Amino acid sequence: MNEPKVLIWDLETGGVNALRSDLGMMLCFGYKWLGEKQTYCPTVDEFPGWFDGGRGRKGRGVNDKPLLLHALKIMEQADLLVAHYGDKFDRRFFQGRCAIHNLMPPPPTKQRDTLRIARRAFNFSSNRLGALALTLELTEEKHQKTRDEWPGWWLRAMAGDRQAIHEMAKYCKQDVRTLEQVYLRLRPYDWEHPRLFADRSLCRMCGGPVCYKGKAYVGENFYKRFVCLKCGKWDRDRKAMEVT
Questions:
Q1: 167: which DSSP letter?
Q2: Mean pLDDT computed over every residue of the chain
Q3: Which has more pLDDT, 8 or 218?
Q4: How does pLDDT run across 139-156, given as a tens digit for each residue?
Q5: How far apart are CA 192 and CA 7, in angstroms?
Q6: Is residue 226 within 8 Å of 234, Cβ to Cβ?
Q7: Which of 93, 102, 156, 164 sits at 20 to 30 Å (Cα–Cα) from 16?
Q8: Three-class DSSP category at 221
Q9: In the predicted structure, residue 158 carries a pLDDT above the cut 90
Q10: Predicted structure pTM score
Q11: d(Cα 25, Cα 94) in Å, to the nearest integer?
Q12: Over 37-71, what HEC string results?
């Protein structure tokens, strides 16, 4: 069986209200495949006809349809999605833009949202991506924007400034790298994480070897409990132990 393809992704948006898909548009699509070195961030200006000087639909000026089509092809390859605040923002924004352009919707791939995982598992003072990276002392940290960058990037990008879009892309790629490390650190605490490896003798999340330690009690039954020696994820057998 091939390794599962886990897509780490993030959006950068702009517009009258860059938090709403009917008032904004996608400017950057940052992503990387879990475990691979390369981070990618295609931008809206890489495609022909991306800017019309404000004469586009509703005078927005920026056409994100070609970028959406490109991103959809990437989404279709993923077995699992990982995003930060992605359940409430990134995924819904992306789907909203697809619907507006009458594009085929992305596949209903399961997604793990690191913000939601952190909220359920811990009681940190902040669950923002940058705060989690600092709290967990990760090697990758989120870039802290200055006032010139935000909202300056939005305004310049809406005026057709390619440099602003490329600066946003650089920021987005750093977010993706930070997100990957946050996800890997939080994953053992994500009890609802779907199984990625069919072999039940291995860890269901990372495919690592396991060591049996103790029992897990569920109602009147009990099961052999084990921990992954690679990622630290605890789990249990699916078949209850026989009472002797």
A1: H
A2: 89
A3: 8
A4: 876 666 655 666 677 778
A5: 18
A6: yes
A7: 102
A8: strand
A9: no
A10: 0.90
A11: 9
A12: CCCECCEHHHCCCCECCCCCHHHCCECCHHHHHHH
